[in-house]
């Protein structure tokens, strides 16, 4: 699949369900908690929506034909296609966006959501990232 091709409709559906789950979690908990708490609750909400979701998915780096286990982990992987990178930080930095882009590139996936739960309005904390 070429990077210029549109995102498949089913992937957009997964993303919409994920965003809905993010809104539910943020509405219930608000900002100010640790990232791991949001991850646990979002994992639960995604499962409630009958989505296949994995936590802390190992992401090896392949370089020069060698596989390196560098400790990279995708926070949540939805339906084996959607990368969710969670943060609970004062401000999203360019390095956070670069992290999601790297995860997409290394995993061969096209769509990721960078989600910062440490915001007053969660809509201000969600960034859609397409490769």
User: In percent, how helical is the residue content?
Assistant: 25-40%
Largest sheet: number of strands, sense, barrel closure: 5 strands, mixed
- Shape, principal axes of CA atoms: globular
Strands of the largest sheet, in order across it?
A: 1-4-5-6-7
Distance between the termini: 11 Å
**What's the overall average pLDDT, rounded?**
95
The domain count comes to 1
Radius of gyration: 14 Å
What structural category arises from helix and sheet content? alpha+beta
The oligomeric status of these chains comes to single chain
Number of helices: 3
Q: Using DSSP, what is the number of strands?
A: 7
Kindly describe this structure.
This protein has 131 residues and is α+β, with helices and mostly antiparallel strands. It has one domain (9-130). Helices cover 37% and strands 27% of the residues. It is built from three helices and seven strands; from the N terminus they run ααβββββαββ. The chain has helices at residues 9-29, 35-48, 94-107; strands at residues 53-58, 61-63, 66-68, 73-78, 82-87, 111-116, 126-130. The strands form two sheets. A five-stranded mixed beta sheet has the order 1-4-5-6-7, sandwiched between helices. A two-stranded antiparallel sheet has the order 2-3. A hairpin with a 3-residue loop joins strand 4 (73-78) and strand 5 (82-87). The longest helix is centred in the first third of the chain and has 21 residues, at 9-29. It is globular. The N and C termini lie close together (11 Å). The model has no long low-confidence stretch (mean pLDDT 95).
